[in-house]
Amino acid sequence: MRQIFTLSLVFSTIRLSTPLVLAALGGLYSERSGVINIALEGLLLAGAFTAASVTFYAHNPWIGLAAAIFAGALVAYLIALACIRFKADQVVTGTGINILFLGLPAVLSGALFLSSGSTPQIPKENLLPALSRFLPFMPEWRIFTDVSSVSLLALVMVLVTRYVLYRTPFGLRLRAVGENPEAADAAGVSVNLMRYIGVMLSGALAGIGGAYLSIGQSSLFTRNMASGRGFIALAALIFGKWRPVQTMLACLLFGFADALTTQMQGVAKLPSGEDIPVQFILMIPYVVTIIVLAGFIGQSRAPKALGIPYQKER
After folding, report:
1. Alpha-carbon distance 36 to 71, whole Å?
2. Domain count, the chain
3. Which of 44, 198, 258, 309 has the most CB atoms within 10 Å of its CB?
């Protein structure tokens, strides 16, 4: 057990939770405004591919990160346009985006880099910096350098989101259009505008999460590298009852389950002394997701107008 539950497991949990936190916070903005966003998986992939590609050509990870934010917001705008203006089914639209970005990055990668499986390797010195710059005289604390700048940004965004939602007029309006759009409209709030903003914020944050996957946690984009994280983030959002801090804690739980799978491989043993088959270990994050949703989804109350297109009365 001591070989499994170590300090490195804690930092691995933080690393693996970072894209979940950012994607889930994005989903929170969208769903608090009343628009279901199950396209988080596709938005993560859009941000990851864009960040890796732009970083490769620009030789600057921050330009890649900015491009990922723009790409995520642009894709989210298309979702908002379909769901808000044209009243398309929000679940079908999100599913379509997820399917699109399972294949589109491979096509673009083949055209740009002559390889549909992955983008070229990004030099390590181009990766997003970690805490090493703050710990130049403490080599024994080298493990703390595993925490990326984006992980710190994710924590800040949780606090900012909590403040924005519950302490600002913008947050009040966003929650109002997700709960009672008719009353919000009567009070002079533009329901459609608030929903556009909510969905596009969702895309921007998921884009950052995708960028972290390809240029922060890894050093290239590989096909389907999100690996279901968008759906796990959606589960964390439901488990967290559409609240920022609770959603972050749910993401940490799923990140811990993911980190545990890595830590247990080759270490966890059966009573007979044999290694636990790796297939069973890799199941842990998804089993935890199913158990959490089965046990707690009934206790969560979604925004009342979630998934309901708003038609202004004339």
Report:
1. 19
2. 1
3. 44
